[in-house]
Amino acid sequence: MKKRELGDFQTPSVLADLLVNVLKTKKLSPNVIVEPTCGEGSILIASHNAFNPQKSLGIEIQKSYTDKLAHNLTNNISILNKDFFVSLPNIKEFISENENILFVGNPPWVTNSELSALGSDNLPDKNNFDNIRGIEAITGKSNFDISEYIIKLLIDNFSHKQSFFAFLCKISVAKKIMNRLWKNNLQYKSAEIYPIDSKKYFSAAVDACLFYLDCSEKKENSELVVFDSIENPVKKYTSGFYKNVYFEDLSKKSALTIYGKSQFIWRNGVKHDCSKVMEFSITNNGLQNGYNESVDIESDLVFPYLKSSDLVKDKFVDRKRILVTQKFINEPTDYIQIKYPKTWAYLTEHTEDFEKRKSVIYKNKCRYSIFSVGDYTFKPYKIAISGLYKSLCFKLITPYEDKTVLLDDTCNFISFDSKEKAEFILELLQTETALQYLNARISWEAKRPVKTEVLNSIDFEKLAKIENKANLYYGLFGSPVVQNLLFA
Ligand SMILES: C[S@@+](CC[C@H](N)C(=O)[O-])C[C@H]1O[C@@H](n2cnc3c(N)ncnc32)[C@H](O)[C@@H]1O
């Protein structure tokens, strides 16, 4: 297996020492230390030397590492050359008599979808990993890190003991793990994250941390304390669950007043996974596709198109068009052949590109089908926000050249029939109340921080009332009774 699929980026000893320094402030005295993916062993050895347990165990899949390690070790450190995914019985056997266990390490940061793209089988059995199913699995929302799986498995199996978990991982992984623990009411003493500079230590552009979970006492808890950094372990703020809602900063939980169910459903833009054929640039000679071919097709199915980067610009960016083959999911596409022969000929010419699409959402669907389309796609007025950018920049999108403007699948949007309604809702979204709520809930370090899930939790009726705009709201969207019928 290759370096990437094994997440084989060894922890430099300076970082292993910093990890141990943080752990030393906890005054731990473990009987046993376990490192599930120990590699060259920097974390295993630094922790063993710092805490002097009765014994330690390092597991590692690559024999070259375990051979080297076994050669240089003292006799109370055991090294096992084995796949972690089948090593749980070994760990259980190793710690049977010992109740005070420290799990440390830096498991691979690779995700399951990166692994399947690499054709790698360095994966646990997917069926054993939460309940990943349906549309979430199809659209890739079930993407998870291998480190997430490894840490969760250890917590599930050993948190009932006097156990401590200290792992280097992505911040998003630590938060996902904590969210799951809160939902399952797992009791623990404390949970903390210490951000690390992953560029400096791993040349990686990802928000990472030391994630520390202390299960030595079992008590009701729904907090995660965020420190400044692993080098400067000073408390910054506390994240956590309040009334079953995740808050990035719990001190701002008063913002919960607008929490509820959005009356307008936020969605992602069109998904097609075929940008070279479906997306066009505008040139002096007309439309050009991703193969730099001039495209001459009927204009009816071609729409102005914005991407995340366009949404953060001040003015409307007229640079892209998109070919839209369906008005709703599963609409048969044969009509194109009769009504739009040039478009059909163009699509037929590029059939292979569509057939190469890997995602299961296109399996057993008609030719040239797309995803995330419906009435909402074609409504003329939209409020959009990039899912990728680290800012709360909501944009009003109005028709361009008499056509509705479409968004790509990295954007979130809601749509309206009238400009007045869209402008009113945009105004509400730009109030301090709404911005404070979103800022209190969004984890800005995430790869895609602005998610439809959080946007869909804004109750606009409550927001309008707080902003003394209830009358205007009801005037535009109807009385509460009408609304209940409309939005039921
Ligand atoms: C990010 S490196 C970290 C290594 C070590 N923990 C450290 O901190 O220096 C991840 C390690 O996990 C090992 N690994 C990957 N998949 C594994 C598996 N299924 N079982 C055991 N080890 C694995 C890799 O070979 C690599 O040494």
Structure report:
With 488 residues, the chain is α/β, with parallel strands linked by helices. The protein has two domains: 13-242, 3-Layer(aba) Sandwich (Rossmann fold); 267-487, no CATH class. The protein is built from 21 helices and 20 strands. Helix 1 runs parallel beside helix 2 (42-51) and helix 7 packs parallel to helix 8. The radius of gyration is 26 Å and the shape is globular. The structure holds S-adenosylmethionine (SAM).
Please provide a brief summary of the model:
The protein is of the alpha/beta class and 488 residues long. The protein is 33% helix and 20% strand.
Draw up the topology in text.
Layout (H helix, E strand, L loop, with lengths): L12 H12 L7 E4 L6 H10 L3 E6 L2 H10 L4 E5 L6 H7 L5 E6 L6 H6 L16 H5 L7 H13 L3 E9 H13 L6 E7 L1 H5 L5 E8 L7 E5 L7 E8 L2 E3 L19 E2 L6 H4 E5 L2 E3 L5 E2 L6 E5 L1 H4 L8 E4 L11 H5 L1 H9 L1 H5 L19 H4 L2 E6 L8 E3 L8 E2 L3 E6 L2 H11 L2 H10 L10 H4 L4 H7 L3 H8 L2 H8 L1
Helix pairs in contact: 1-2, 7-8, 19-20
The chain binds S-adenosylmethionine (SAM).
